[in-house]
Amino acid sequence: MSRLSRLGQSQAELMTPWTEVLRRARENVARESAHPWTQRLQRLRGIVGGDGIERITTQAVFDVLEVPQRGRTAAASSMLAQMMRSNGWTPIRTRCLSRGGFRDQARGYARHPAI
Questions:
Q1: How many CB atoms lie within 10 A of CB 61?
Q2: Is the pTM of this model over 0.70?
């Protein structure tokens, strides 16, 4: 019995081209280093308005990501903005009425809805 077969490697694994081994290693590293928010943000859906634009507030996104209030820092907002832009969202500011009837500014993201 050869030393390599004792290590549990089959002949097929030994004959794998080096480029294939590198490609698999890159995929594993990318999968492990992916940000924990990535999958949730890719599935994120906002509210489609009468004009056909999909919108969502930053606070609603943080709620979906289950980020506690004390974790909603400038650094977290910056990271969120970068990830939202990479998923096709555009940052927006809008004025709306708050629950008390006052005009309030809300920050969020908008995009054309996915078909």
A1: 22
A2: no
